[in-house]
Amino acid sequence: MAGAGPTVAEGELLVWAARLDGRIVGIVQLDLETKPNGRHRGEIAKLMVHRRARGQGLGKALLAHAEREAAALGVSLLVLDTQSGSGAEQLYRAAGWNRVGVIPDYAADPVGELHPTTIFYRSLGGNGQFPDTTEIVNSPV
């Protein structure tokens, strides 16, 4: 569907997977901005790790991999949002992301209850040093 959002085929959306024992246990999705004034930006639109695979550093590895790939593409600023108070929020803070603020009642859960969302950003314009995650993350899906 045209205009429905970024697509893999158009190179606007990139997805990588973490595999353990041949199974996908996590993914990270990077959306690249296509507007002329925003081509330096990207968004971590999804970062998910299967609950049985959590606590092994996969989320951190996936995030670092997406950051490194974004920097290699010339992206200098990443943004993301996550449910306030979630484990993901702690992950982003520990990974050096900057908290911008909270938007109340931003996202509805499956039963319709509204939850606040925390907005983060990360500048990639620094030294470009990211940990090697190639053994954990298989690129692309």
From TrEMBL:
<dbReference type="GO" id="GO:0016747">
    <property type="term" value="F:acyltransferase activity, transferring groups other than amino-acyl groups"/>
</dbReference>
<keyword id="KW-0012">Acyltransferase</keyword>
<dbReference type="InterPro" id="IPR050832">
    <property type="entry name" value="Bact_Acetyltransf"/>
</dbReference>
<protein>
    <recommendedName>
        <fullName>N-acetyltransferase domain-containing protein</fullName>
    </recommendedName>
</protein>
<dbReference type="Pfam" id="PF00583">
    <property type="entry name" value="Acetyltransf_1"/>
</dbReference>
<dbReference type="InterPro" id="IPR016181">
    <property type="entry name" value="Acyl_CoA_acyltransferase"/>
</dbReference>
<dbReference type="InterPro" id="IPR000182">
    <property type="entry name" value="GNAT_dom"/>
</dbReference>
<keyword id="KW-0808">Transferase</keyword>
<feature type="domain" description="N-acetyltransferase">
    <location>
        <begin position="1"/>
        <end position="118"/>
    </location>
</feature>
